[in-house]
């Protein structure tokens, strides 16, 4: 504790505050940031913290695997715009959570991973055969933005404040804090927790001259566009971006990672790469305002593929919190370095005196894209096997999704189909793009629902292979009575990998070892065994009604849908998966 942060002794005594335990102080520091949920499995290091959290009115969410706890925390952070807390027990617990640390790092999600450890007198001995023990911090330091170990109780404030500072500054990401077991029960004599603005830069703005320069480019442009990424949803800044879009009179392009729709401008929002209207918008654009995106491989770095056509001398305005990101993937004409929650309103203020009229092609683009989606829903979905076509699975499930639902996605082929056939325009979407990690969907859906207060409906569309990773956490869905419907596409295989075999060796030239599994698994029955409702639907035309009925029931439900395996992996030659050729262009340098 810094001396200038201490209250005078008289003030402490008069407040009647007294001393607090380290675990109590941890919760106080996190509460100052608006955090009120802990994900993890308690062990002797943390049982006191869990009891205290419950007393303070926190959500205490315990999954059945530490890896899943990390995914839940990530879903929570994406829905709140705040960091999340994930607890893992010493040794195996922290080891199992490490995969989610890597996921949080690549997905740019601010999660605080708090790990237990043996008392230092045990850890630092020269001994063999110690129980439930590894040297943890060195193993994980490359999987997080910053790591620390609290060696003394009075380091608690400074370490947690720096963790909160690091995980939210620059490119957001995870941090790891380790507590030896002898420290967490010690007492501290400290004042109430400081507000965040006292120890970190909160939502910094951009340079005024740069904002003015960006505004002039937009005012003089022929076809300015907004390119909106994942961070817009994660910072809960949608309405601020909406105001800017309306002032610019422009279309909005979604990155594949930021495919949540902003309420009020859904019709003028189009997917990059997966619609013909989007192709035309890219070609015509002469000023791009990129917000909340890394401009990474799925965006062809803003240089290749679609960007190499049309007005290739277009100007780029980049709203980005991390100054080190400026110019890494492509040259930037006007960098607006700061938090988009502050910078976007700055830009809107500069445009309010001279708002642009809607682009003359905007109405046509809206009409043509609506016609594209309608045509997809009306196509012939018959299959030789009689099982459900994956495109119809997406159409029927997403048409029936309530308008205010949160959409969680997981899977391989099923996600590729979703990019093309999606019929809904959800305002919140959680899925794992950058890391490409399967099995995140159920954890993401649970974390997002908890963050939402368990109020809005949640639709998880997933594949059988992905769903099996953490299917045990259906018990969590049941226990918490989450308003969730899970629609599982079942082809009894690792669908994308089947396609890889066919693309590599040709159809029928291998037995495709390791990618086919039992056809006897019934997810509807598993769901019932874990306390949820289970429904079996084998006709595509019946799926929409089943989804609507499941949401109307208010009970968490799993719907098992057998899909055609050949359609799912793109036909016997793996050439018919929708937009698969475009998906492959994500690997922008031409290397797998």
From TrEMBL:
Any one GO BP annotation for this protein: isoleucine biosynthetic process
Keywords of the record: Thiamine pyrophosphate
Record-annotated Thiamine pyrophosphate enzyme central domain positions: 211-347
Limits of the Thiamine pyrophosphate enzyme TPP-binding domain: 410-561
Domain Thiamine pyrophosphate enzyme N-terminal TPP-binding, first and last residues per copy: 21-128
The protein's required cofactors: thiamine diphosphate
Superkingdom as given in the UniProt entry: Bacteria
GO cellular component, one term: acetolactate synthase complex
Pfam families membership: TPP_enzyme_C, TPP_enzyme_M, TPP_enzyme_N
Gene Ontology molecular function: acetolactate synthase activity; flavin adenine dinucleotide binding; magnesium ion binding; thiamine pyrophosphate binding
Keyword Cytoplasm: no
Protein family membership: Belongs to the TPP enzyme family.
Protein name: Thiamine pyrophosphate-dependent acetolactate synthase large subunit-like protein
Organism name: Sinimarinibacterium flocculans
